[in-house]
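Quick illustration for those who missed Monday's session on complexes.
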Amino acid sequence: MPIVIVDGQEIEIGADERLNCIEAARRAGVEIPHYCWHPGLSVVASCRMCLIEAGQRDAETGNVSMIPKLVPGCQTPVKDGTVIVTESEKVRESRARVEEALLIDHPIDCPICDKAGECLLQDYHFEHGQAERRADIHPFTSRKRDVGPTVSLFVDRCIMCTRCVRFTREVSGTGELMVTSRGAKEEIDVFPGFPLDNKLAGNVVDLCPVGALGDKDFLYQQRVWFLKREANVCGGCSAGCSIYTEHNQDTVYRLKPRENPEVNTWWICDEGRYGWHHLHDDERLLTATRREGPAGHAGNGSPAAADETLEWADVVGRLQTDLQAAGSLAVAVSPMLTVEEAWMLCSVARSIDPEAFLALGHVPVAGDDETFPGGFTIRGEKCPNKRGVEAVLALFGSGGHSWNDLLAHVAAGKASAAWITAGYPKAWIDEATAATFTGLACLVVQDLFDSPLMAQATWRLPAVGFAERAGTWVNVAHHAQSFRQAIRPPAGVWPEGRLFWNMLGRRGLYDPVAIRQELAESAAPFAALAGEMPAIGVDLRVRQLA
Amino acid sequence: MQPFKPVLLEAVGVPDGNTLASYRSRGGYAPLERILREQQPADIIEMVKASKLRGRGGAGFQAGLKWSFLPKDHPGPIYLCVNADESEPGTFNNRILMEDDPHQVLEGTMISAFATRATTAYIYLRYEYPHAWNRLQAAIDECYAAGLLGKNIQGSQFSLDIYLHRGAAAYICGEETGLIESLEGKRAWPRIKPPFPAIEGVFRKPTVVNNVETMACVAQIARRGVDWFTSIGVPADPDNPRDPGSYGPKLYCLSGHVEKPGCYEAPLGITARELIDGFGGGVWKGRRAKAVIPGGISMGLMTEAELDTPLDFKGPGTVGCMGLGTAAVVVIDETVSIVDFLHNSCRFFAHESCGQCTPCREGTSWSLRMLERIRAGKGRLKDLDILLELGNTMGMMPGSTICGLADGAAWPIKNAITKFRNEFEDYIKRTNPEGWMVTDPVPALQIVGAH
Ligand SMILES: Cc1cc2nc3c(=O)[nH]c(=O)nc-3n(C[C@H](O)[C@H](O)[C@H](O)COP(=O)(O)O)c2cc1C
Ligand code: SF4
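Prediction with iron/sulfur cluster bound:
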């Protein structure tokens, strides 16, 4: 195995690994500061922050010969015997000078800058900069301009790393951003009439190492040091991008991509990025209610029965009783539910009616999959766990049952009760489809918002959104990722899993990890979920193939 | 000084010397036709290697060696780019070659293309050279009409198209990888190397970039032979195997405070004093020179005492200049303030820095602003130290930048301050009697841009 020597420490790298000095040093626990380099973009070696000393150790003699000048760590590949020196006087001076240069024209408006607290310019200056400002230049004022509907550019904070420009050229392939002028007058800009407006645009804000690009959705909403982050998975489509949900006091403020080489690399799409606002929508259903009489609109002459608001603890028993009384049951298992929830729901349903008809819930679709030049794909299937729910249904002998099958089943009069889990962030069902369920003895609907179907329900139960859930989702490529709850649901709302757990008569707090372990041990298709789940998830098919 | 009959400038002053007929009458294109009939590309590379021709664009790299870096047996296309962006301040020899003897440049280009197996050549012409454009385009048209360009030239297997490409009007477009980017229609941001253009250049294909004068030299070597070429100039140092010598005639651009500015052809190795006195008629108005730029502003400054330095590829380096550069000799007479000179130099580089590399982008701009303040009577001795530090740390040589522009910006700073430190100190003390010794930052002036 090739050996690389980082500040005297020998580390081994893979035989066919192609690493640069930054990556190799990271293996040794050494951070080489850098701005322009990003593993997902082409190398430009222009910020010059990663300058280091490099050399080669002779395999025979062990003598080290160093390159006399400094070299950019990002541009310098390592091989067996590469020697990297990151802490020499020369390197330190060079870093201090780059920091000094970057701050010459910088407004240093940290107190009003949204990036403060997560800014590489701040961090690196603290670590590598010099205390005294030698340049006696009035920095420019903080000019700001819009570069697109979602992104603002704070022109003078920019350090010209060009990550954003390269992103729009290499990853989104849309090329809106460019550099104008020359020298110290250079600025990032868009071409007149062609704003930064593409489905991946928000990533440029994440890429910006300083406070130059601001996301209008997040700007001035929260100081970043108040935010806590939870490793989550985006529920926006069946790609299942790894994300961080960044929140404070049960309020989400933003979503950020979480690096996952198996799924989304470094990016997420804007639809996913801004797809959390529904969590805090005032229209959300917050109380569990029950109504006497068959499902359907009032209007058949008799006055509508009054809704009875129930405590969750009461829901558990009375729902069971109602469903048992109603007879043959049909259940839609929403692809918004986790694998654990789906498994518990199916178990509950079969315990109530051993013949219960189980089917995949409605699968929202919007257009086709869209792949960008950098390889990133937004899926047309707008739910995160269709594969996972299908696999669970198969365990119950109901594999292949779709939402349409369920509608047909009900329309044919084969069910007297239906339990529809939903949890969709957007309107999803029309009056006509909802009418299929009119007249059922019992109709349980679990959803985030009111809908034509909800209007018919005898049991209206609030659902929760992605960040309020815990469990496992399986994406379009059968890649399973487990996640924890990031924020608590609104007061009084139980996540679906908690209800199912209690209906199964299990004791103690709802524990999705315990469910996952049971599932992994008892069901071969889920064997890969056993034990500690890696942060990047696992391929569900791996252990099945083995 | 021995008399020297111009070769590269043969056509200058000849009526209609720019035409194909006139060029042929001087023996032009016969070498090309002979090569196409009798020789192989490898023979030409050998010839140019043997001539020890060093590139005339600034870096002085051996042309034949550069060509030999091209991948062997490459399926093509391979490109040849003629660097006619000529924007180093003080330099105008390429313009004269292109305006007065475009066929000499074209023949050199054709022979070089033959040698490198390029079937497309681009001439990347400085934007501000409309006359050269017209003359070159007319000459290219004549060649196509005469069967010297196009498919199967003169019945041989060799085909070549030459395209004239008008530059994007920036100094950085002359840096070879900036040129390549610009030619591809992009912003002329120099590329990181490796890969070098010989491996991956224009449109990611192997590419050779050579200067206009280098092309003219190739044409003359083909016409007059390697021995003729190596009989001129300064031989290699026999004790230094890595010295490739400085052979051949060179076009010196003499300007500034001389009686007779102009483009003069002389053997490599003529001293600055010989050039100024012999060709230029001496410093103007009977004054003395204070300093002389040896080869374009990037190369730094020689003092009057250093004027006996030979202007070959090695000479200027021996007195602390960067090198011969473009051999653009600019005379600065004793009435000129070196502070003003350096201000002007810094203004140029701050304006022309492409802005990729932090040290160059900010360093050129900061140095300009310091000089603006010094000239506004707010200088401090400390500024000289900071300027010198910038000069010593900015550039490819210390490793802090991608291209050589930053070295070119650094050299005048270094040379001016080390060679004329007294003048700077006197100036600062005289103009800022209250504050010259102050070490705290002083309030800045209103920012004045490089424009
Ligand atoms: C900032 C900068 C500007 C340059 N401008 C020119 C130019 O205008 N013309 C030129 O021939 N070479 C220029 N060069 C040198 C080229 O990069 C390159 O070395 C040269 O074209 C190679 O040709 P040669 O080997 O025939 O000299 C420049 C270099 C730098 C760093
Ligand atoms: S050294 Fe200056 S001109 Fe050259 S690439 Fe860097 S910033 Fe551009």
